[in-house]
Specification:
Helix content of chain A: 25-40%
GO molecular function, one term (chains A, B): metal ion binding
Number of domains of chain A: 2
Pfam family, one (chains A, B): M20_dimer
Number of strands of chain A: 18
Low-confidence stretches of chain A: none
Domain Peptidase M20 dimerisation (chains A, B): 208-364
Protein name (chains A, B): Amidohydrolase
Largest sheet of chain A: 9 strands, mixed
Oligomer: homodimer
Radius of gyration of chain A: 24 Å
Largest interface: A-B, 94 and 94 residues
CATH architecture of the largest domain in chain A: 3-Layer(aba) Sandwich
Structural class of chain A: alpha+beta
Mean pLDDT of chain A: 93
Number of helices of chain A: 14
Distance between the termini of chain A: 24 Å
Keywords (chains A, B): Hydrolase, Metal-binding, Protease
CATH topology of the largest domain in chain A: Aminopeptidase
CATH superfamily of the largest domain in chain A: Zn peptidases
Shape of chain A: globular
Chain lengths: 468, 468
């Protein structure tokens, strides 16, 4: 067979086997591998075992290896020769919690194909996209290659962890420990999105993430506002006053030094971005909004990709049940996260936030802080070899030029791959903005899953042909 | 017997019977009559039936009467003559919810006598003070009079409701419906506090209460902050920004018109108040604070009694579980209450608050409001006849001049008594600031209970001797 006819045979195999691919994804989606909740630890183990057993059938030597937390799967291609380019594919089998459960239209761990309101076929379940659906596009592509050609076209190691949704802290130690076993020429990650439904994308920059929890404490007990109201500090009042000042009237973040090191996007890139015509109509209207909420002197595309942001992700204090209670609580807390861009030092940002809060505390109040994430932004090397190969392959599959884009999201592991394994990462994914990841009714378009598998089939072929 | 020796006999009877009085209070405290939670509706009925049966033994014709909510107890003295002063005693058998349960040192509905850290004997249970303990001081005083003298010294009607802690909305309708049965010369209420542990007090003004809930809505679903952060409105950010601006740097409330109609305390009263020497040391140190949090140009005693206040009693939005979730929620909400003083119109304050919030909403956000309370402040008539009699009786019992004080709390029913029954109310109570009412570990000093009963014995005698 010529290379071209072989590639076509593998693609045909993907199409012929697609119904079975969906059933295999469903089997994975039925496992309740919620990493944040200790009650699901056994489910996480089950997901790792399930993946190890499945990947073993594709010609890999697979192991479930312990970490400090949920286990990781490591799979090494039996046909690895050492002469070919060697890729390390990374994914995660863990998923986000499902609350609020009452907003789901069907049970989150009973996957099904459903009809989207606009007629698209979608796969609905927790993890349908993030990351079980996405990592399965790669595994199914390997299956098709193995089935048609008897082997994979490149050397391959697969690693799938179970703690991405809780910060990968144990996995970073695992990487250090197993770095020899995980050596490769570059990493492949399928945990990002398309530009839009028809336009594939490779993500070349990721925002960093500083995620802090702040707890304000005042009196040593809950108080009755009739007796103490007016005289005693109210930690919710203190918290709202401090958090309410984090943005000025123009949407700029007011923490001193926050923008230190932040660079403007080069004018030529900005010109390209303007042509993409990302509008409030296209981006915000589908979620019921109409006005960009970020810095008023920036384009919407800058607000969501190249500019650092601050969001309050959670807040709680006092009485939150039905009706009323005239309480002044002893404490109140909030979860505050910052998306960082290239040039910002996460430790400095964390310290600046803590100093900002502390400077605004009344003398009678204390603040405590918890560090949930502290990862820098990542700018990938646009000149990395596999990138051009992947761009061609994606363009071939989708019939539309693949875009190189900056993502607003954070995938901290990419920095760890560079630091620990000294590899660059190619970020290709098939998520859409309306996939409701981390929310009720998470979905993955059937088209994303199908053409995602086909895309990886082509990328693997292109990587085989490209220099290491 | 002379009147004096009869009074002494009744007081002796209180002392001799005190252990039994405590046991009767315990029986009432064991009933879980939480009015806010429908799961305890049967317990509320049981508390009403229990009180009706007990009060019947004191020479009253008692009935449990239905209301639109939990029932009320109405008891009419069998010895009422029509020639003597006729008092209407009011109390409530319902109690606040007990959450957070894990902060209680013992089960909230298993009352016990305990030792306070400073050596005081205390009765610990939900309702130990508010209002089961307080109303029991009056009922036990009646029991002692009945036991020694065979009859009460004045004409008396007792009414005990079950929805004070949820706003008494049904009880106000009940008052309208039964106003003939409840006719009296004045009302007595035991739901207020002492000045301090040794100094009795009669409350002559009460702050009003506007209690609002505000819900801010932005996108039509929860969003991932990696994708939308920076571009989409975050309702927690909007809420904290609005609530964080409710006070200025000097602790003044910034809502336009908020202080309209508020009068300064007369200079001579302020002079008296200054002599009381209410300090941060005495008032705030016991709860772990040191600096008055109210208007910086006002005395602490003004901040907590004669000045209107604003407190955020609860706030919630986004992810509030353990760890982190990078969500931008669809909505966030807060419970905000205002303590009002004489001269402020609660409806105007409510409307001004709503206008304040609405004016600060980004165009993409909506605000919804719930009205939980809307009651004016009350200034009682310092010249009302029974007041002087009660002041003498309290001074006799405690050996220290009873003070006439303004309370920071709200007892909206007092305004309804005036409006519907055309009676003034005498507010006498034996609560202390550290009773933890509405909080875990509610308590009532044994001394408050014991001398409270003795105080009412003396007040009943003094009212019998005073003009109607």
């Amino acid at each position: 067979m010529t290379e071209t006819s072989q590639l076509q045979s593998v693609l045909d195999r993907v199409d012929a086997d697609f119904d079975a691919s969906v059933q295999r994804l469903f089997a994975l989606l039925r496992i309740k591998s919620i990493s944040a909740d200790a009650a699901f630890a056994e489910d996480c183990k089950a997901a790792a075992a399930h993946l190890a057993a499945d990947i073993a059938t594709l010609g890999f030597t697979t192991e479930v290896r312990p970490t400090g937390g949920h286990p990781a799967v490591v799979a090494r291609g039996n046909g690895n020769t050492g002469d070919r380019p060697h890729a390390l594919f990374y994914g995660h089998y863990d998923v986000q919690p499902v609350d609020p459960l009452n907003l789901w239209h069907r049970p989150p761990f009973e996957p099904a194909i459903a009809d989207h309101a606009d007629g698209r076929k979608i796969i609905v379940a927790r993890g349908a996209q993030d990351d079980k659906g996405q990592l399965s596009t790669f595994i199914e592509a390997c299956r098709a290659w193995k089935s048609v050609a008897g082997a994979l076209p490149i050397d391959l190691t697969i690693v799938i962890e179970g703690e991405e949704e809780v910060g990968s802290k144990n996995f970073v130690a695992f990487l250090e420990q197993h770095k020899r076993d995980l050596a490769a020429d570059y990493a492949l990650v399928c945990d990002t999105g398309m530009w839009d439904r028809d336009t594939p994308a490779i993500t070349t920059s990721l925002r960093g993430l500083v995620y802090e929890e702040v707890i304000i404490k005042a009196a040593d007990r809950d108080l009755h506002s009739g007796i103490y109201g007016g005289g005693a500090q109210n930690p919710i009042r203190v918290l709202t006053r401090i958090l309410g000042g984090l943005h000025d009237d123009n949407g700029h973040i007011t923490i001193p030094g926050f923008y230190d090191g932040v660079k403007d996007v080069p004018p030529e890139v900005l010109e390209q971005w303007k042509k993409l015509n990302l509008t409030a109509e296209s981006f915000l209207k589908p979620i019921g909004l109409s006005i960009p909420a970020g810095e008023t002197d920036r384009l919407l595309i800058e607000q969501i990709s190249s500019r650092p942001t601050c969001d309050i992700n959670g807040i709680v204090g006092g009485y939150t049940g039905e009706g009323s209670k005239t309480v002044i609580p002893a404490h109140a807390s909030a979860k505050v996260s910052f998306r960082l861009v290239d040039g910002q030092d996460p430790k400095k940002i964390r310290d600046a936030f803590r100093a900002y809060v502390t400077a605004r505390l009344p003398k009678d109040c204390k603040a405590e802080f918890l560090d949930h994430s502290n990862a820098p932004a990542i700018a990938l090397d646009w000149g990395m070899k596999p990138l051009a190969a992947a761009k061609r392959a994606l363009t071939d599959e989708w019939g539309k030029e693949a875009l190189l884009v900056g993502s607003g999201a954070s995938i901290p592991i990419v920095a760890d791959f560079k630091r620990i394994l000294d590899v660059d990462t190619l970020l290709v994914g098939f998520g859409l903005d309306d996939d409701n990841i981390h929310s009720p009714n998470e979905k993955y378009d059937v088209k994303s899953f199908h053409k995602g598998i086909r895309s990886w089939v082509r990328i693997l072929a292109a990587l085989a042909a490209a220099p290491k």
